[in-house]
């Protein structure tokens, strides 16, 4: 099915970018983040339907409950009590390395913000990679509103340093252009 094809394409890109095969998500986890009704995900594909990139997030409380099982309490970063029931935790930002450019990221980000706001969310929390400049891009894009915490070593993507960021979503977000599939409501993505 088209749904399975999308999951396989995402896992294929994960295999390209993650150092360890252990970091590649199980198909059920990819499906959960894409299609759960409470989650927000935007997917970009080329004209042939090939995966180019996506941003996927779950409610902060849901992510924290899962992370606590692995010994990480996301609330420990939220020292100022900013996260609410309207906060998302970005599970993954994944862009096919063959497509990687900042324009694609910014397009995905605009579409993600719109989808999140459409679902009633007002902020996001994430661990932004530092080596590829993502934390700098986010901090510059939302200058003055991002709350950045101290950088830390992470056992995630290639053991890179990440920077925990809390980002209030802008009140006014211009409509994003381009073909983007939305999985935010649990509906089929891209006619799947």
What does this structure look like?
- Helix content is 31%, strand content 24%.
- It is globular and about 45 Å long.
- With 192 residues, the protein is an alpha+beta fold.
- The model is unreliable at 173-192 (pLDDT under 50).
Summarize the structure.
The chain has helices at 2-17, 27-35, 60-69, 102-118, 134-141; strands at 40-45, 51-59, 87-95, 123-129, 147-148, 152-153, 161-168, 180-182.
**Secondary structure tally, helices:** 5
Quaternary organisation of the protein chains:
single chain
Q: What sequence of helices (H) and strands (E) makes up the elements?
A: HHEEHEHEHEEEE
Main sheet, how many strands, which sense, barrel? 8 strands, mixed
**Uncertain runs with pLDDT below 50, 5 residues or more?**
173-192
Integer-rounded radius of gyration: 16 Å
Structural class, judged by helices and strands? alpha+beta
């Amino acid at each position: 099915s088209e749904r399975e094809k999308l999951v396989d394409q995402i896992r294929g890109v994960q295999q390209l970018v993650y150092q360890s095969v252990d970091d590649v998500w199980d198909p059920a986890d990819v499906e959960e983040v894409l299609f759960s009704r409470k989650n927000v995900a935007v997917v970009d594909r080329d004209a042939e339907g090939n995966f180019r990139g996506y941003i996927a997030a779950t409610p902060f409380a849901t992510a924290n409950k899962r992370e606590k099982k692995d010994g990480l309490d996301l609330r420990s970063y939220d020292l100022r009590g900013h996260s609410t029931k309207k906060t998302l935790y970005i599970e993954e930002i994944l862009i096919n390395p063959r497509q990687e450019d900042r324009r694609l990221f910014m397009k995905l980000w605009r579409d993600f913000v719109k989808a999140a706001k459409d679902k009633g969310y007002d902020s996001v929390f994430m661990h932004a990679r530092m080596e590829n400049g993502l934390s700098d891009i986010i901090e510059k894009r939302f200058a003055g509103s991002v709350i950045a915490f101290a950088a830390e070593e992470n056992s995630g993507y290639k053991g890179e340093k990440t920077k925990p960021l809390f980002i209030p979503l802008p009140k006014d977000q211009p409509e994003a252009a381009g073909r983007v599939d939305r999985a935010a409501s649990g509906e089929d993505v891209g006619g799947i």
